[in-house]
């Protein structure tokens, strides 16, 4: 999946499911301050990411996401990680 596809899909669910204005969806937009997402929204966001991209971020990983650009990068990185197996 290309970075632009990640951006497009992410922006689509932020607009549709979280009712965010498209003009707010810039890479420098901060989740808490600019997009007004709280910790409950973060939990919902993890479920949405799982549905849309097939990955389940850990809450500790989401704590490192500050801006929308960070989020795009995070998803891209997770999608490109090799499958991990439990030993």
Characterization of the model:
The protein has a single domain, classed as Non-ribosomal Peptide Synthetase Peptidyl Carrier Protein, Chain A. By secondary structure, the protein is mostly helical. Helix 1 (about 5-15) packs across helix 4 (about 70-80). The chain is globular, with a radius of gyration of 13 Å. The relative contact order is 0.17. The N and C termini lie far apart (about 30 Å). It has four helices and no strands. The longest helix is centred in the middle third of the chain and has 15 residues, at about 40-55.
Layout: helices, strands, pairs:
Blueprint: H1 3-16, H2 39-53, H3 59-62, H4 68-80
Write a concise synopsis of the structure shown:
The protein is mostly helical. Helices cover 53% and strands 0% of the residues.
Shape: globular
Determine the number of helices (DSSP H or I, runs of at least 4 residues).
Answer: 4
The assigned CATH architecture is Orthogonal Bundle
Characterize the largest beta sheet: strand count, sense, and whether it forms a barrel.
Answer: none
Number of domains: 1
What is the fold-level CATH name, i.e. the topology? Non-ribosomal Peptide Synthetase Peptidyl Carrier Protein, Chain A
Assigned CATH class: Mainly Alpha
Protein traits:
87 residues; mainly alpha; 4 helices
């Amino acid at each position: 999946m290309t970075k632009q596809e990640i951006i497009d899909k992410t922006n689509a669910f932020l607009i549709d499911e979280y009712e965010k204005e498209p003009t707010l969806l810039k890479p420098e937009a901060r989740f808490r301050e600019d997009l007004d997402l709280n910790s409950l929204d973060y939990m919902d966001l993890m479920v949405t990411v799982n549905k849309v991209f097939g990955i389940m971020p850990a809450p500790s990983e989401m704590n490192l996401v500050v801006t929308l650009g960070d989020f795009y990068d995070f998803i891209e990185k997770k999608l490109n990680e090799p499958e991990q197996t439990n030993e």
